[in-house]
Automatic annotation (TrEMBL):
Cofactor note: Binds 1 S-adenosyl-L-methionine per subunit. Binds 1 [4Fe-4S] cluster. The cluster is coordinated with 3 cysteines and an exchangeable S-adenosyl-L-methionine.
Pfam families reported in the protein's UniProt record: Radical_SAM
Catalytic activity: 6-carboxy-5,6,7,8-tetrahydropterin + H(+) = 7-carboxy-7-carbaguanine + NH4(+)
Record-listed Mg(2+) binding positions: 54
Gene (UniProt): queE
The Radical SAM core domain, residue ranges: 32-226
Cofactor(s) in the UniProt record: S-adenosyl-L-methionine; [4Fe-4S] cluster; Mg(2+)
Sorted UniProt keywords: 4Fe-4S, Iron, Iron-sulfur, Lyase, Magnesium, Metal-binding, Queuosine biosynthesis, S-adenosyl-L-methionine
Function: Catalyzes the complex heterocyclic radical-mediated conversion of 6-carboxy-5,6,7,8-tetrahydropterin (CPH4) to 7-carboxy-7-deazaguanine (CDG), a step common to the biosynthetic pathways of all 7-deazapurine-containing compounds.
Organism: Lysobacter hankyongensis
Record-listed E.C. numbers: 4.3.99.3
InterPro entries reported in the protein's UniProt record: 7-CO-7-deazaguanine_synth-like, Aldolase_TIM, rSAM, rSAM_QueE_gams, rSAM_sf
Binding site for [4Fe-4S] cluster: 45, 49, 52
Subunit composition and interactions: Homodimer.
Name assigned to this protein: 7-carboxy-7-deazaguanine synthase
Length: 226
């Protein structure tokens, strides 16, 4: 009996993701900053944050099978893997990729915008969840239902554009007691807020958050693939 070509094509698509790039670098931020890390950048994002530094990932990309991606990641010979975008969860098969990376023994983090449900992400993954500030121009996209799902294994990140963003973010941390759930990270938006100003505000307020700068930008500016 001949196989159904349509069924075969559907099965093949079920194991594929659209990928912008896969590369080895240092993790530049969050809890694992400094570790050699393989980055798997998925294509596409439903948000348009005004400070986005990876707009090249919105379109294009190449279809890759999960088996192919696992083999490439393993070939780099490091433990840490970061799945990022764009917004990786905008592709549903991202959940399968995350699970299989964990099954392969990797230490896996997920960079997600906070606009999509994180409930089905493998619990072995450290979910680095953005909370979009008013200065991002996408504050309305925050999915607040994600916050009760956070655990000590996860992290929350705020990109701060100005003093108003800082005060708004400080209030969100206090209202939801985020620092009691997981690590909370405050970063200055490049070219909009000086790192020193943000650091001074955090120290002055004794805020229970971690100040961070993006290590990869200090080392390599905005060079793609670094």
């Amino acid at each position: 009996m001949n196989a159904d070509p349509a069924a075969a094509a559907t099965a093949a698509m079920a194991d594929r993701l659209k990928i912008t790039e896969v590369f080895l670098s240092l993790q530049g931020e969050a809890r694992d900053a400094g570790w050699p890390t393989v980055f798997v950048r998925l294509t596409g994002c439903p948000l348009r944050c005004q400070y986005c530094d990876t707009t090249y990932s919105f379109f294009g990309g190449e279809w890759r099978t999960i088996d192919d991606l696992l083999a490439e990641v393993a070939g780099h010979g490091v433990c840490h893997v970061c799945v990022t975008g764009g917004e990786p969860l905008s592709q549903k098969r991202c959940l399968d990729l995350l699970r299989r990376l964990c099954d392969a023994g990797h230490v896996v983090s997920l960079e997600t915008s906070g606009a999509i449900d994180i409930a089905e992400v493998d619990p072995r993954v450290s979910r680095v969840l953005d909370i979009k500030t008013p200065g991002s121009a996408e504050v309305a996209r925050n999915r607040w239902e994600n916050l009760p799902l956070l655990t000590a294994h996860d992290q929350v990140k705020f990109v701060i554009c100005n003093r108003e963003d800082y005060e708004w973010s400080r209030a969100v941390v206090a209202e939801h007691r985020l620092h009691e759930r997981c690590d909370v990270l405050f970063s200055p938006s490049k070219s909009e807020l000086s790192a020193r100003a943000l650091a001074d505000w955090i120290v002055q307020d004794r805020l229970p958050v971690k100040f961070q700068m993006q290590l990869h930008k200090i080392l390599w500016n905005d060079e793609p693939g670094r």
